[in-house]
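User: Here's a chain of 194 residues. Predict its fold as tokens.
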Amino acid sequence: MTKIIGLTGGIGSGKTTIANLFAARGIPVYIADDEARKITDLPEIQSAIKDVFGNQVFGNNILIREKLAQIVFNDPRKLKQLNAIIHPAVKAHFDHWLEQHLNSPYVIKEAAILFESGSYKDCDFIITVLAPLEIRIDRVVKRDKVSREQVLNRIDNQWSDRERIEKSNYLIENTNIQKSEEQIEEILKKLTIS
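Assistant: Prediction complete.
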């Protein structure tokens, strides 16, 4: 039976970097945020977004993601409404993807809001990626070209590291790529024994 390894961490912790290190070892990796972005382009999802948020988040019938993000990261109720549209579609997509990888001993499901969405319940093990707050902020400011305040606002809408750690089986401190590689090898050894 294929085991599902949840991979999560706060914004800017380097989840995708760690996911890529697992993928380089031949382990199938599902990046939930990437798939969610694709799913928001589906006509039925866009229609549902329009029903909840109106035309203000669209320009020439194209979703303006920055505008939507600005709304949901400033209003927890709106974020919950958006998640209620997106998460069921991502879950269905993941389930279909998983069927194609049943020959693998384990797969990685990388998701920023693994706990917040409740999808951690479908995982056999959970790895949380950690990095100091200032490093995370710096990474996101450079990557997304957003302000420090915007990053902190997003962080406030996610679980804290402490909350994630309490529900995780393994931790990866992601500040040095070589150390991260060593931690991955240790985890893979333990998973092989499990």
